[in-house]
Design a protein that fits this description.
The protein has one domain. Helix content is about 50%, strand content about 15%. Strands 1-3-2 form a 3-stranded antiparallel beta sheet. Strand 2 and strand 3 form a beta hairpin.
């Protein structure tokens, strides 16, 4: 079973960007995220949709 939620660092690795840039995208709301307690998680579906919307080439 594939993960539904990933940590910001996992998302950053998938996008080949740094931690600072990932948290900047989360903070601005460009990449939607969810808080679970004190943890931040990103839905894989939201990340995939963001990639399509931004036409990001990986």
């Amino acid at each position: 079973m594939e993960k539904l939620l990933i940590k910001p660092m996992e998302a950053a690795k998938m996008l080949s960007i740094g931690k600072t840039k990932m948290y900047e995208l989360i903070k601005t709301g460009e990449i939607p995220s969810k808080r679970i307690g004190s943890s931040i998680r990103i839905r894989v579906k939201d990340l995939e949709e963001w990639i399509e919307k931004e036409q990001v080439t990986l």
